[in-house]
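Bug #2210: token dump truncated for Chromatin remodeling protein EBS isoform X1?
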Amino acid sequence: MAKTRPGKRDLDSYTIRGTNKIVRVGDCVLMRPSDTSKPPYVARVEKIESDSRNNVKVRVRWYYRPEESIGGRRQFHGAKELFLSDHYDIQSAHTIEGKCVVHSFKNYTKLENVGAEDYYCRFEYKAATGAFTPDRVAVYCKCEMPYNPDDLMVQCEGCKDWYHPACVGMTIEEAKKLDHFVCSECSSDDDMKKPQATFPVSPGSDGKMNEYFQVEPKRRKR
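Reproduced locally. Full output below:
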């Protein structure tokens, strides 16, 4: 366990100013940016400590939004997607605006209702090099893109692959009305089984594997 410096003491929790919300080590929080026109930063609290003047500081591990990373936001990045970085900082606890929940990708896709404080993470990110872990991700559809949980997809009953409606010549409205779907490659199979009911609503982890994220160094400024 890390030693606390002279004059400092570890705290079990911190109550966000002006609220009754309690932050503990391991919680994810929203932190006020210096540019108030930007959305709050998201971080995981690693340590809470107070000095002799009762100034409370938090050691945090930052989550990056796709647009803050090397390579920027891509088509398959969801609106609530974050990357857990290796970038740590010490910040005043007073900059904490609220709490949030960063779900695993799998758990996020199972949420019936996504709230304003719900996010998800499927990659760890090295801020200095732009490297991602894992560096391979399942891809779907003719466009061979990873799954974006914000986008509707339909599953072929034959090959079991998933498709964006636009990639198979359908509108979103048409896709929502489907009881079953067979892709063009499977439609010639006369032995295709008819559906029992309807198909699942989102891909699992059985897509084709491909490699992404060829990026160059860049550092984030605060």
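Output looks complete on our side. The first strand starts at residue 9 and ends at 10. Marking as cannot-reproduce; reopen if the truncation happens again.
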